[in-house]
Amino acid sequence: MTNQVVIRMASDLKKASTKNDAPIWGKLAEYALKPSIARRDINLNRISQLTKDNDTVVFPGKVLGTGNISHKITLCSFSISNSAAAKVLENGGKLISHEELIKQNPTGKGVVLLG
Q: What was the pLDDT predicted at 1?
């Protein structure tokens, strides 16, 4: 992700946090502004363990394709490997951008923040 994209995403998240009184978006903005070396990775098998069917999940780092996901999720992450994306979609899940995530869940209620 380029610096401009990260700064725009953090700005969008901060605005949504203030506008909707949703601390989750402010927290995500903080994660976005951290140096990329400080960001985490998570494998699909770990996401599968931590979530349930039809959860909306956000991960402020890179999602890797190790393991499988056993149920449908809607996923927003800062980065995702091709194999992880394919596995999420194969299980009927969705990949969405931070803009779509905010639009669908303005207050952040029901969104599972991993990390």
A: 64
Nearest CA-CA partner of 63 in 73, 103, 101, 54: 73
CB 52 within 8 A of CB 112: no
- Report the pLDDT value the prediction gives residue 39, as an integer from 0 to 100: 84
d(CA 66, CA 54): 21
Q: In this structure, is the dihedral angle defined by the CA atoms of residues 111, 40, 30 and 81, taken in order, positive or negative?
A: negative
DSSP SS3 for 57: strand
Low-confidence ranges of the chain (pLDDT < 50): none
